[in-house]
Amino acid sequence: MANSHQSSFRRILVTRILLVFVPVLLIGEMVTLNKARSSLLNTARQNLTNSAVYKGEKINATIAALKVNLISASQTRIIQSGAISKSEDFLQKIAKSSPNTIDCIQLQKIHNNSTILSQKNHILASTCGKQEINPQQLSSHGSEAKITLIPPPKPGTTGQHYRDSQLQLLLSQPVYNSRGNLAYILLLKTTLHRQTENHPNSLTGSLIIINEHGKIYTYMSPEKIGKNIQKYVNFPNLKPIIKNAINGKNDSTYINFIDAQEFVVGYTAIPNPTTQKSTDKWIILSVSSVQEALSGLDEIKLILMALTVGLIGAGLWISLYLAPYLASPLEQLTDYALNIHSHHAAQPIPRNFKIKEFNQLVQALDQMVERLKAWAEELEIAWKEAKSANTVKSQFLATTSHELRNPLNIIINCVRLVRDGLCDNREEELEFLKKADDTAIHLLAIINDLLDISKIEAGKLSVVTVPIDLHQLLLEVINLQSVNIQQKGLQLKCQIGNQLIPIKADEGKLKQVLINIIGNATKFTDQGSITIKTEITKQQDTSYVNISVQDTGIGIDPSQQNKLFRPFVMVDGTTTRKFEGTGLGLAISRNLIELMGGKITLESLGLNQGTTLNIQLPLIDVSLLSKRISV
């Protein structure tokens, strides 16, 4: 029975370390995040207010500069003379020296000296080709430039891109000739603002311009330009912003614009440049989502994570400080456990600790020692059984082979065709008997190699490579395997060409590999076709021949494909029971191909999606093959 004065090891560890740090850590993180969020939002509001004021001042300054340039240009002798070539050069110089907000400058000759009424005038000079800018009504009296807001084109209209149609103004200035008569009109088309994507950390905001009644001149979504903002915003909440801006107040607030998403809005107001009336205002809004305003909060979270790691480190240091109190009983039990294997150790197990878990551990160690003795006997028996199983495996490799089935099937089928009298004549009988004889001889060579599977595992298997014609070898293998393929009712497709394919290989062992691969394709395919194809490729300075055997059979799960080249391994028990075999075929084939300087790979998209097995062998000069044939 445990002593009532004993303390729980878990209680000591949790109450003295974790309960000190966890509450402090959580409270500190909550306070810091709240303070950081409030500070970031206040900074965003101030930045957006300044951004709105700056954008409004920039619009005023740009329009004023364009007006001055337009009036100055209209008073030059070149423009007043109406000379086409000189006016063209002069307008080009103005466009190059002016801000990049200018889209087009045109000088038009008017036909009616009293009033210009959006009529078709004659273009004398232009910086934007022959596309005519239609002026609005302009009185023949006075020399002031007239500013007109160009409405956005409808979506889908040709010409100017819809996204570029944001805050476009037309400045028109009458031009009088040397006799004081109104003869020309100078037009300047400008785009003061194009909506662009803002950097998340810039907090300059997207520009929105509306008039006192809520009509939109620029907006985050171009298709809403020209409409009233009350369709997209809770307009009663926007009215105080409009009122404050008209009264000259520059400030910021929060408002919902799209899909109930909250935005931070900085605002100001400027005089409407198209009316020149002090009572008519444009409301300038600089808008940024709360999410963008809080983009810096992620960095603060990273800092808090680092702080958390630091606190955890402090907790570890405190645990090391408490180690002498906790480690003494552990060290005694560790010494006993480390020396428990020694038959000469007479030291008894330590007992009577102040922590009950250690006393329970003492009891567990006593029980464990007894169990270890029993397990040692079981392990010795299991080791003997494993050694015996390894001996059985070597005997199995020496007496059986997965590779025997395919040649034997060919021999059996050929003999049965002759025995059952299914041949048309004596010549066909002799042909099948010859196939059976050739296969039997080849089977003997396979058995000799399969019985030496231990040589492969020991790295002692060798091949004798000589120049051979792969094309001729493929024809022989296909002729041998065609009986099995036809017996299963499968379609055989051969794409091996008619050209010599010179390689250096062990003819008998390569023939063994090809028979095994085509036999596997036949065995695991119930319907469809088997395609045998050769292809010449070049990698760096070496040419290779790729032999692919593709079937439409059961396929292989991608997670099981890495098992196929291991000896005695098949993909699963179901396949083993259905098709039998030892799983040696591909393991032997891979070793033989690698000894010939090639490589073998397998591809399958999955179950019931067929399998493709590829063999790659280096090509040799065809003259080497010719020398061997001549010899």
Word description of this protein:
The protein is an alpha+beta fold. It contains 16 helices and 19 strands. The chain has helices spanning 9-74, 77-81, 84-97, 235-246, 290-293, 297-321, 323-338, 356-399, 405-419, 426-450, 453-458, 470-487, 507-523, 573-579, 585-595, 622-630, and strands at residues 102-109, 115-116, 122-126, 138-139, 146-150, 168-176, 182-191, 206-211, 216-218, 251-256, 262-271, 281-289, 466-469, 491-495, 502-505, 529-539, 542-551, 599-603, 611-618. A 5-stranded antiparallel beta sheet has the order 3-1-7-6-5. Strands 9-8-12-11-10 form a 5-stranded antiparallel beta sheet. Strand 10 (251-256) and strand 11 form a beta hairpin. Helix 9 packs antiparallel against helix 10 (426-450). The model is unreliable at 114-119, 137-141, 158-165 and 573-577 (pLDDT under 50).
Spatial separation of the terminal alpha carbons: 95 Å
Kindly state the number of beta strands.
19
Portion of residues in beta strands equals 15-25%
Mean pLDDT: 78
Structural class: alpha+beta
Question: How many H/I helical runs?
Answer: 16
- Biggest sheet descriptor: 5 strands, antiparallel
**Helix amount, in percent?**
40-55%
Low-confidence segments, ≥5 residues, pLDDT <50? 114-119, 137-141, 158-165, 573-577
Alpha-carbon Rg, integer? 46 Å
Shape: flat
Strand ordering within the main sheet: 3-1-7-6-5
